[in-house]
Amino acid sequence: MKARKYPGLFVVLEGIEGSGKSTLALGLETTLIQRGFRVTLTREPGGTETAERLRSVILESEPAPLAELLAYEAARADHVALKIFPALRDGQIVICDRFTASTVAYQGHARKLSLKTIDTLNRIATDGLSPDVTLWLDLPVKAGLARAKDPNRFERESVQFHERVRKGFLAEFTKNSKSGRWKKLAVEKKNEEEVLKAAFNALKEKLVKVKP
Ligand code: TYD
């Protein structure tokens, strides 16, 4: 797979339900824009017209696990090709709420589909693009589920399912932390402002790559 070169910075937020990714994404967007950076804020599944349509299908119906996996990957392929990579090539900071590690955690560790297959499909769908930095917002499952509003299909899954998701993120963090591309933020006892500050500090060294 070819290495991707671009002047932008690709930041991904990961975590279980109720970890505060969406709130942090908005906070980071505002903070970075105030500092003169150009930012694209996006999410998975979604981000493009086709991917948002796939999102509704996935979250509002009950596809078979393999069909669900392929639908996430189809949405991702469209999102990377039409939105993420063009913004990175344009020198922007892309903040993406969930990416490939969510597939490893949810479809792999929680739904128990083959991790090897998921790894292969992730590489195909992203065309080899991987985040410059993944911020993992970690907190205990019970605390996350208590905070999660708007219950969707995944929020109705068992506590054990979400424990497996959290373990999946831990496994990815352990595998990648030495590379400096994964940072863990323990968020249970932090308020929004504290999480934003910790996230911004974790990103600081990466920001030298992009010019405001
Ligand atoms: P969303 O409402 O965005 O949840 P959250 O606010 O917690 O991010 O719904 C996205 C759901 O899709 C979430 O439960 C996780 C799931 N998901 C996967 O199972 N696999 C994936 O690859 C992605 C990107 C998301």
- Fraction of residues in helix: 40-55%
User: Mean of the pLDDT scores?
Assistant: 95
CATH topology: Rossmann fold
Architecture, according to CATH?
3-Layer(aba) Sandwich
Give the overall shape.
globular
User: How many helices does DSSP assign?
Assistant: 8
Largest sheet: 5 strands, parallel
**Number of folding domains?**
1
Spatial extent as radius of gyration = 16 Å
Q: Helix- and strand-based class?
A: alpha/beta
Distance between the termini: 30 Å
What's the oligomerization state? single chain
**Poorly predicted ranges (pLDDT <50, ≥5 residues)?**
none
What does this structure look like?
With 212 residues, this protein is of the alpha/beta class. The chain has one domain: 3-Layer(aba) Sandwich (Rossmann fold), CATH 3.40.50. The chain contains 8 helices and 5 strands. It has helices at residues 21-34, 49-60, 65-89, 100-110, 115-126, 141-147, 159-176, 192-207; strands spanning 9-14, 39-43, 93-97, 133-138, 182-186. The protein has a 5-stranded parallel beta sheet, with helices on both faces. Helix 2 (49-60) packs antiparallel against helix 3 and helix 3 (65-89) runs parallel beside helix 5. 39% of the residues are buried. The model has no long low-confidence stretch (mean pLDDT 95). Bound molecules: thymidine-5'-diphosphate (TYD).
